[in-house]
Amino acid sequence: MAETRPLYLGPRLRRLRRELGLTQQAMAGDLEISPSYVALLERNQRPVTADLLLRLARSYGLDITDLASEDGADYARRIEDVLRDPIFADIDLPSLEVADLAMSFPGVSEALLRLHGAYTREQQALAEQRFAGSDAEETDPVSEAQRFLAARHNHFPDLDARAEELAAEIAAEGGSRPWLAKKGVRVRFVPPDVLVDSVRRFDRHNQQLLIADTLDAASRHYQLAAHIAYTAMRSAIAQAARAGTFASRTAETLVRRALAGYGAAALIMPYARFARAVGERHYDIEALSRLFGASFEQVAHRLTTLHRPGEEGVPFFFIRIDEAGNVSKRLDGAGFPFAAHGGGCPLWSVHQAFRRPGEIITQWLELPDGQRFFSIARTVCAGGGSHDRPRVLRAVALACGAREAGRLVYAQGVDPAQAVATRVGVTCRLCNRPECTARSAPPIGREIVSDEYRRTVQPFAFADS
Question: What is the CATH T-level fold of the domain 135-313, as seen in this structure?
Fold first, then answer.
C-alpha cells in the first residue's frame, strides 16, 4: 500500500491569511485551533491534516484541490533557479539541502526569494541609471513607443481583421495597383531624384502614388501596402493609438508609424493565411519570404505578431542592430531580457552575423539564471539600388524559448536539453559569470582584486569568488 506523505502548506497558508487580512489569532478562531498551532503550520513545523483542509475550504470558500497541492516542490524549484545565479557559483549547494530549506524553513526561503528579486531589480535600475538619467527612460519617445507595443505583445486584432478584409479585396482585383487604380490612385515608379530623398510620396493633387524605382520587389510591395495602410486603415490605426497616453507628439508619431507598419505587413501577410503557412513551412523564414513576396526582415517581424487565440505562433523576441551595436528595433514576446541601455552580450551571435553576411546563424543560449533560448540571426541590407545610393547593413535576430525551438525548421531533431548552449548574459554590468573572457566591465556590486601580482585570463577577478 502506498505510503501517505504528510502535507505541509506553510507558505501557502501564510499567503492565504495575508490575502484575507487576518491575524494568526483570527484565523485560529475561524479554524477552531490555537494561534500557536497556526504559527507552527505556517513554519511547516506541523503538517496539515485532512480535517483541517476541510475546515479551511469550508471557512473561506476555497477549492480543496487547490489547497492540497504542495508548495514545497515549487519553492525548491524557485530557490534552485535563484541559486543558479553565478554569484553563488563557488558555493556547494546540493539539491537535497535546497529541498530541505524549502520544506523546513519556508520563511527563510521566502526571504531569500524576495531578497534576490530586489537585488535583480536594483541591478537593472543601477545599470539603467549608468547610461541615462533617472527620468530619461520615462520621457524618451522611443522607449515610450516600445512600451506601448510591448504592453500589447505587438498584437492588434482589429488591425489584423481589417487587413484581412482589405487583402481579400485586393486579391479579387488582381493586386495592389489595380485596387488603387479602382480608387482613382495611379501608381508610378520614378527615379529617386524626382522624389527628393524619399522612397514613397503621395501626390494628393494629382492622385498619384510615387515610389522609387530603385527599390527591390519586396520593398515596392511593402511601400504600396504602407500607403494602403495609412489611407484605408486610418481609422483602425487611430483607434489603436488612442489606447495609449503619450508624453510627447514624437512618441505618438512613432506609435502611429509602428501601427501603419503593422498594417502593411498584415496586408502582405494576412493573419490566417500567414499563420497556416508558418506551420506548414516550420518557420522557414526564407521560404515564407518567397511565398509572400516579403523581405527576410519583414517576415521575421511579422512572426512576432502571431498571438490570435487559437492560432498562436511561437512567442519571439525580435531585435535589429547595426554594426556598432545600436538597437533600432526591439520587440519582446518571449521574455528574453535584452539590456535596455548599453551593449548586449558580445557572445550572442547577432553581433557576429556581420562577419557572415546573408547567412542564417543559429545558436542555443543559456542565461545566468539557467533559462535557455534558441536564436536565429542574419544580416539584412537597406538602401542601395544604384551605384551612388548608400547601403546600410544591419543584423536581425529572433529568439524563442528552448522548449519552442523544435517547431522551427532550424532546430528540428535537436533535443534542447542536450544542445550545447552558449552561456550569455544580459549585459556585462548585470552578469556575474566570473569566467567570461569577453567581459568589458565588472558587474555592479562586485569588488575586483588587485592584479599587481597575478593577471587572470579573464579581464577581472572578483574579490569574493
Answer: Arc Repressor Mutant, subunit A (1.10.10)
How far is residue 226's CA from residue 265's CA, in Å, rounded to a whole number? 8
Residue type, 336: F
Of the two residues 400 and 447, the one the predictor is more confident about is 400
Where in the chain are the domains?
10-104, 135-313, 314-465
The percent of the chain in helix, strand and coil, each rounded to the nearest 5, is 50, 15, 40
* Cell of residue 39, nine digits: 504559527
Q: Are 365 and 399 in contact (CB under 8 A)?
A: yes
How far from chain centre, in Å, is Cα 373?
A: 11
Residue 129: helix, strand or coil by DSSP? helix
For residue 197, what is its C-alpha cell?
Answer: 530623398
> How far is Cα 390 from Cα 388, in angstroms, rounded to an integer?
6
User: pLDDT tens-digit profile of 259-270?
Assistant: 999 999 999 999
CA distances from 360 to 3, 127, 327, 397 (A): 54, 32, 19, 10
Distance in angstroms between the alpha carbons of the first and the last residue of the chain: 49
User: Do residues 199 and 212 lie in contact, with contact meaning Cβ atoms separated by under 8 Å?
Assistant: yes
Closest-CA residue to 195 (of 329, 382, 328, 385): 385
Q: pTM here?
A: 0.73
CATH hierarchy code of domain 314-465: 3.30.450
Tally of helices (H runs) and strands (E runs) in the chain: 19, 9
Strand stretches in 29-162, DSSP E: none
Question: Three cell numbers at 417?
Answer: 536539453
Distance, in Å, from the CA atom of 147 to the CA atom of 223, rounded to the nearest integer, reads 26
Residues 6+ apart with CB under 8 A from 137: 128, 143, 340
Mapped onto helix, strand or coil, the DSSP state of residue 52 is: helix
Contacts of 206 (CB under 8 A, 6+ apart): 186
Exposure string for 169-184, b = 16+ CB within 10 A, e = fewer: ebeeeeebbebbeeee
**Cell numbers representing residue 5 in the block:** 506523505
Provide the β-strand partners of residue 374: 364, 400
Which of 410, 416, 437, 411 lies closest to 425, judged by CA? Answer: 437
Q: Is 166 exposed, middle or buried (0-12, 13-18, 19+ CB in 10 A)?
A: buried
**What is the Cα–Cα distance from 132 to 410, expressed in whole angstroms?**
38
More confidently predicted of 108 and 21: 108
Q: How far apart are CA 147 and CA 144, in angstroms?
A: 5
| Chain centre to alpha carbon of residue 416 | 19
Fold of 10-104: 434 Repressor (Amino-terminal Domain) (1.10.260)
3-state secondary structure of 396: strand
Tens of pLDDT along 153-191? 899 999 999 999 999 999 999 999 999 999 999 999 999
Beta bridge partners of 330: 319
